[in-house]
Design brief:
The chain is an alpha/beta fold. The protein is built from nine helices and six strands; from the N terminus they run ααβββαβαβααβααα. It has helices spanning 2-5, 15-27, 91-101, 111-121, 131-134, 136-145, 157-168, 178-184, 195-216, and strands at 45-53, 60-68, 73-83, 105-107, 126-128, 154-156. 31% of the residues are buried.
């Protein structure tokens, strides 16, 4: 898969992460989730945006996952949800968070809803802006409910942006914010307030960076 081979160094792959994934794989070997740990052989990816808000009881997590290929972002194939308990003491905070992120229906963070999410993502590689810290709360919830974190290969678009800009303009410090990166590469910001808009913008930025690398090759 050429698009993955080109950026293998950008995958999240600390020793601790790799050991955790291997432990999860062994634990899930005889479960219905075993296929998620198999190598992906297709051409699709999933752009993921995730916003978590801590509360005294459990975090409220809004997320959007959007299927994409090298040529197209398939917003018609998106999984958008806010995970939180409407009856928790912070229900008013939950509603404000949900409205701010414009993140689909508020659903309880139970096994059924989390299973639907991981089955949508499948074993496709995940891309996103500063992905690891953004999905830490989601991974903690998945580990608690399903027994594993997202095992997918990750591509951090922030690292890809910084690496590409340094190669083109080594004298310039790479802009650190997502909005600055979108402006730098002339990518529409869309509705950055919504998690779906953020996921879509991440996908478009990734595609733009891919094209600049192909043109320079």
């Amino acid at each position: 898969m050429r698009l993955l081979d080109r950026h293998v160094a950008l995958f999240s792959g600390s020793l601790r992460t790799l050991m955790r994934r291997e432990s999860d794989r062994r634990r899930c070997a005889d479960s219905p989730y075993a296929w998620l740990f198999q190598p992906y052989m297709g051409e699709e990816l999933v752009a993921l945006a995730c916003t978590a808000m801590p509360t005294p009881t459990s975090p409220v997590i809004s997320l959007a996952a959007v299927a994409m290929s090298q040529q197209q972002v398939r917003t018609s194939r998106a999984f958008v949800i806010t995970l939180g308990c409407a009856r928790q003491p912070e229900s008013a905070t939950l509603r404000r968070h949900h409205l701010l992120c414009q993140a689909g229906e508020v659903m309880p963070p139970n096994r059924e809803n989390l299973s639907a999410l991981v089955e949508f993502i499948g074993n496709r590689p995940i891309i996103g802006w500063k992905l690891e810290p953004r999905i830490s709360a989601l991974n903690a919830l998945l580990s608690k409910q399903l027994g594993f974190s997202l095992p997918n290969a990750h591509i951090d678009v922030a690292k890809l942006h910084q690496r590409r800009l340094r190669r083109l303009h080594p004298e310039i410090d790479a802009p650190s914010s997502f909005a600055q990166a979108l402006t730098c590469w002339k990518v529409p910001a869309l509705s950055m307030q919504s998690v779906l808009g953020e996921a879509t913008a991440s996908a478009l930025l990734y595609m733009r960076l891919q094209r600049t690398m192909a043109e320079a090759a």
